[in-house]
Request: fold
Amino acid sequence: MMKIILYLAFIYCVLLVMLTVFQRKIMYYPHKLDKDFEFPLYVPQLEEVFITCDDGYTIHGLFTPGSENKPTLLIFHGNAGNITHRDFLLRGFNTLGYSALLIDYHGYGKSEGTPSEKNLYRDGKAALEWLRKEKNRKPEDIVLFGKSLGSGVAIELATQHSFKGLILESAFTSIVSVARSHFPYNCFPVSLMLLDTYDNSTKISEIHSPVFIRHGTEDTIIDKREGEKLFEQANMPKELYLIEGADHNNMHFHNPQSYWTTIAAWLEGLT
Reply:
């Protein structure tokens, strides 16, 4: 019996070390692109941009123009792939008449460097500065859009400036909370292990921009209760929209018409 206990303890320690050492490999799934990769013309006048962050690394993004009388969307995507997998956002906002900047984080797509919480926050700040310098867009002219992991970037940025609005899709209270939901019975001390925590729950009470939280009711990666809790903690004005039957990665396909009409209505309601 003692041998079995020692063997199980050894296996547990090995798993603990592996999860700690390789946690960023588990959290971030970047898909790189060749520097000479040519993007399809997702929308008319699509602009490919390169932005230098304060650590000297350059990140990549796509900008699509829209009406000068409407706010600009600054889009932060989830933890996997790159901006080629989010072209529907550029198309959708362009159809609604909004300009949008969609960026790839450190280590994603054509962007340099490696992803981490600190570096993703750098990316958000650099993207905002680019919009200010190149497009003359101030925070009050910008709506932040954060999907999943991108909700952490959007919330961090929104604590530093007063934006036109904040859209959070498939958002979470913290990475610790999400990790615990995937490790039953709290079998690993995730709060001690994690290097990147994205503590959205603590930060959202600092935000006073209008907030629109959207979540699929059948989300198997980030439970809808995460979005509901963020909604409870957010300041007014705020709105919660649950997409019945939608999972984490199919919200925009589940009911495309409702997906875009609800966003359009919320954006039009901003003052």
Summary: The radius of gyration is 19 Å.
